[in-house]
Structure formats: structure tokens, C-alpha cells
Amino acid sequence: MTELSTADLCDQHRPEPVDVMTDSAVAIVQPGLLRDFGGRQSFHGQAATVKCYESNVLVRQLLETAGHGRVLVVDGGGSLRCALLGDNLAALAEKNGWSGIIVNGCVRDTAQLAGMQVGIKALAPCPLKSSKRDPGLKAVRVVIGGVQIRPGDWVYADLDGVLVSKEQLSL
Q: What residues bind substrate, as annotated (predicted)?
């Protein structure tokens, strides 16, 4: 997978100064919101989405399928009460060809996640596992860090941040 720098993508696709308001095809997820947990620090791909609250049933279901380099975006409602992803699900993502996972919620098994070749960003760690009650919704619009993400949108992530675009970006 070719690594793409979010800073370089911004320079190319959002060249206007920060104080100039324009409509842009590239949205920036709120800086500082997400922390890095996976072994791959730079990742990108088309989004697959899940909206769930304190239940990771659909997260597992999607990660059991072929990822084809996609990024799973999980809107967990920002809950810090339990983890929606741990080492077992991350191992599925790695095995099945997912480029990365972004969680608006928590992850666990962080020492193991750091050694896996999948990008993982989340709000925080939490040792408690999720419930399996309400599965949630898949293939829906989600909002993370003030940015709407729809299935098929392109997600670009690295240590500098997360970008979202309706179209594939290049340098």
C-alpha cells in the first residue's frame, strides 16, 4: 500500500489559507480527537461504516469479511465505558485485508494492537469488553469529529490526522 501524507494531501487539495472560508472536497476530522493504537501509522481506503453503541456485533461481522484495503469507520457514539475493538477483532482485520479501523469509542489490548499491521485510531483505551445486545446499523452515514463519513468515501489517516473525501485523492 502506498503511503500518502495527510499534510501533503492538504497542500494539494486544500491549498487555501486557514483564514479563507471555501467549500472543500476534503474534510479534516477534529484534530487531537483520535489516538493511534495500531502498528500501521499511515493508512487509507474506502470507508465501510458501522453505527453502534457499546456493542461490537457488527464490527466483528464486517471484519470477518474481505476488507480489500478498506477502512472500517465505527461510530460508537463516543462512549468511553467499554471497548468496541480488541486484539481478536484487530487480528481479523489484519488477516482479511482491512487497511485500518477508526473508532469513535474505545479499544483494548493496546500492547497487542501496536504490533498488528493494521491502522487503528480511537478515542481512548478501556479494558472492559462491549456487550453483544443491540447490533447497531451498517452502511450508514456516521459523524466523527465533525465530519460526515458515508460508505464509499475515501479516508486518509496518519500521525498528523484524518481526512475524508468523496473522491480518491492523489499527489
A: 86-89, 108
Beta bridge partners of 100: 71, 119
pLDDT at position 93 is: 99
* Cα separations in angstroms, 42 against 21, 22, 51, 132: 28, 27, 24, 30
Stronger pLDDT, 79 or 22, i.e. the higher one: 79
Question: SS3 for 18-59, per residue?
Answer: CCCCCCCCEEECCCCCCEECCCCCCEEEEEEEEECCCECHHH
Amino acid at 148: Q
Q: Across residues 26-36, what is the average pLDDT?
A: 96
**Residue 150 annotated in ligand binding:** no
d(CA 111, CA 37): 8
| Residue 145, marked binder | no
Nearest-angstrom CA–CA distance, 128 and 155: 28
Q: Residue 88 corresponds to which cell in the numbers above?
A: 481478536
Asked whether residue 88 is marked as a ligand-binding residue, the answer is yes
**How far is 167 from 46, CA to CA, in rounded Å?**
9
